[in-house]
Amino acid sequence: MVETKLLKYNSNDVAAAGEILRGGGIVGIPTETVYGLAANAFDGATVAKIFKAKGRPQDNPLIVHVCDMAQVEQVVSFIPEAAFALAERFWPGPLSIIMPKSSRIPDEVSCGLDTVAVRMPSHKAALDIIRAAGVPLAAPSANLSGSPSPTTAQHVIDDMSGKADAILDGGSCDVGVESTVVSLVGDKPRLLRPGGISVEQLESVLGEIEIDSAVLAELSPGQKAASPGMKYKHYSPKCRVIIVKGSFDNFRRFVKNKKKSAALCFDGEGEKLGIPFIEIGREHDSSAQAHLLFEALRELDAMGVSTAYARCPDTDGVGLAVINRLLRAAAFTVIDVDGAAIIGLTGPTGSGKSTVAKYLTEKYGAAHIDCDLIAREIMQKNSPVLFQLAEVFGEDIIKPDGELDRGLLASRAFATKEGTKRLNSITHPIITSKALAKVKDFTLEGKTAVLLDAAAIFESKIDKLCAFTVVVTAPEETRLDRIMFRDSISREKALQRMNAQLSNAEYEAKADVVIHNYAPFDLGAETHKIIDRLKEIKP
Ligand code: TXA
Ligand code: MG
Predict the structure, then answer these.
(1) CATH 3.90.870.10 domain range(s) in the chain
(2) What per-residue confidence (pLDDT) applies to 233?
(3) What is the structure's pLDDT at 226?
(4) How far is the CA of 59 from the centre of ligand 2 (A)?
(5) Which member of 81, 163, 341, 467 has the lowest number of beta carbons within 10 Å of its beta carbon?
(6) What is the pLDDT of residue 221?
């Protein structure tokens, strides 16, 4: 623990910040994008302290901040023509340019790459502090790794108190999202991270540029990131974020009855929703949204909700940076409320949820997605998931014929809470994204409702993606008889299976609609409850 000095933006405190930086300290500084955690860029040992304070992965290089072109010459070995053009137009400002690094830049800054990202910030305090320090400053965003970037001094205090030597308060950051990162070291200029300067603005100087695939899509397992920072989970509040595409009316109907949830929505929408909300600027006003996004993500945690449903922003101009950050906060989970309604279908073993699924698909033309089947598919022979699981739970979970030994995996994974969590953290995101891809396909086929059928729908939190959830139940004695008959197993074995799941009461308490699948209830009348509910969602 160090004692963190709180500094103001005045000449005395700027001089003090400069002195701390020259003396090998790390300082939280304001910039026009987000606050940075700065150190002398030529001093590897001090830069290492930044990684420690943030808990930052060792392979994620830092941006070097300069106050003039003379400093640029100190940090790069060569300034490409295009860099002069970009600097002329956008510096000082929210643009980082990747160039070949000079020998003065230590490995701690570049993480072993032979390039360095350079940026001249426009915030007056940032420029004054760099001048006072007399050296270029390496500075990542001043948040704990994985958390939303800080846009006020208070955010930096929350994350870096006791870690940074000082924090200088320069007010709230204008832009609110980080700088645009563009690389000039390849054949063609390439956008690695969208930010305060838009693609349209870059192209007005450079002509057409390449957009790295990691900007809008998730890297597939093993794919190398051009910008190491893009591969990490980022900007995440503790609650789960889900991006919701579609009209406001459909959004409103979708979130209306959601428990323990909040909405991230546009100005003027919140009051109409009936759930807690944070407004992040007017619809179509990307600059306002950029300015408010990170603050909103931080606020979500203070609200104590478990899920946040975010309206989908525009993706042009600075909007590309907003959606890029939001996608990462949401771990790329996007649902479309204008598409087929997702109905979560579950129920304990023996309750007959397949009967209900069959009834709904045959009578009402609903599509059906079996998540348990997807789970099997993703763990097939030679699949990346299978290898990932073997790394965690032991090579011997793969049998000599290359297939998964389900029993062995289950005995290892479910032995501890930690193991179960590891297993789920590997499989659930992939199951979710595969299921959502199928929903998209069914929407294109013109389906209006999709049954998302999963035994562990609540445990896996797949229920959060659903318009509503349906639980099929039957008395335990009835279920016992059905299982024994269906699978020709003993009473003990059947009981064992039943006891491994939530109880009837637990299922029913979590469901939006309960279907009684046993006499004297009439299955037709029972399933009609689902159709009625669907009409509320899709009138
Ligand atoms: O607006 C900003 O850029 C803020 C303020 C403080 O200036 N800084 C910032 O730094 O966002 P950070 O460390 O949070 O993000 C830097 C990003 C990371 O995604 C990193 O991988 C990438 O820039 N980066 C840095 N040097 C790179 C290099 N040589 N090649 C490729 N990517 C690089
Ligand atoms: Mg960052």
Answers:
(1) 5-215
(2) 66
(3) 79
(4) 13
(5) 81
(6) 63
Tell me which DSSP letter residue 274 carries. Answer: S
Domain with CATH 3.40.50.11030 in the chain: 240-336
The residue among 47, 8, 12 whose CA lies nearest residue 26 is 47
Contact 419, 393 (CB under 8 A): yes
Domain 5-215 bears CATH identifier 2.60.40.60: no
User: How many Å separate Cα 83 from the centre of its chain?
Assistant: 32
CATH of span 240-336: 3.40.50.11030
Q: Which residues of the chain have pLDDT under 70?
A: 221-222, 232-233
Q: Is the CB of 141 under 6 A from ligand 1?
A: yes
Class level of CATH domain 341-366+447-537: alpha beta
Residue 141's nearest CA partner among 108, 107, 164, 112 is 164
Closest alpha carbon to 433 in 423, 422, 445, 441: 441
Question: What stretches of 180-285 show up as alpha helix (H) in DSSP?
Answer: 199-206, 248-255
pLDDT for the residue 217: 86
Do the bridges between strand 513-516 and strand 190-193 make them parallel or antiparallel, or are there none, so unpaired? unpaired
In order, the DSSP letters of 338-356 are TSPEEEEEE--TTS-HHHH
CA of 478 to the centre of ligand 1 (A): 60
What's residue 222's pLDDT?
Answer: 64
Residues of the chain with CATH 3.40.50.300: 341-366+447-537
Give pLDDT, residue 456.
87
Predicted pLDDT of residue 209: 97
Sign, CA dihedral 23-26-30-36, equals positive
Give whole-number Cα distances, 46 to 75, 115, 279, 367, 383, in Å.
17, 20, 39, 58, 42
Q: Which ligand is nearest to the CA of 181?
A: 1
- Ligand 1 atom showing the smallest separation from residue 33 Cα: 1
Please state the separation of Cα 535 from the chain's center in Å. Answer: 32
**CA 451 – ligand 1 centroid, Å:** 42
Alpha-carbon span 199 to 210, nearest angstrom: 10
What pLDDT, on the 0 to 100 scale, is given for residue 172?
97
